[in-house]
TrEMBL record:
One of its GO terms (biological process) is phosphatidylinositol-mediated signaling. It comes from Perca flavescens. GO terms for cellular component: cytoplasm. One of its GO terms (molecular function) is phosphatidylinositol-4,5-bisphosphate phospholipase C activity. PANTHER family: 1-PHOSPHATIDYLINOSITOL 4,5-BISPHOSPHATE PHOSPHODIESTERASE ETA-1 (PTHR10336:SF51), PHOSPHOINOSITIDE-SPECIFIC PHOSPHOLIPASE C FAMILY PROTEIN (PTHR10336). SUPFAM superfamilies: PH domain-like. Residues 106-140 form the PH domain. Transmembrane segments: none annotated. It comes from the Eukaryota. This is PH domain-containing protein.
Amino acid sequence: MSSWVVNRKGEPQYRRHFLTDNSTFHVERCMGVMQSGTQMVKIKAGSKGLVRLFYLDDHRSCIRWKPSRKSEKAKITIDSLYKVTEGSQSDIFHRHADGSFDPACCFTVYHGNHMESLDLVTSNAEEARTWITGLRYLMAGISDEDSLAKRQRTHDQYPFNN
């Protein structure tokens, strides 16, 4: 679960898996912040960026944002996430190479069958870290081969009577 990565200076650095360092309390705090919502700049090709309120839905199954003209389409399901990267490494960020964004406040969510990117900038590094940690946690839960199917089966087999 841990690995070696290359830091900004090009030096190898040992990095523990993010779940190793995150207690249940920390992850739940991330979930709470994400469900409350965070104003972020959504970077798009050919524009300066759009300020939107991003939040995790009540079921923790979708990232949503508002305002949006597309309303119901303004969402990305957690099970469609491919990876979350820290910093301003995506093509969209490289096109905005004027350096106006602090890389510590930037992250990219890759999703969908065509590896689309959602490039976001937060107002501070802690907000970016919270979202990165929370999304990776949610992805790890879904990538557990059959955990989603198992949860659904358990729910279907043992209905609760109120």
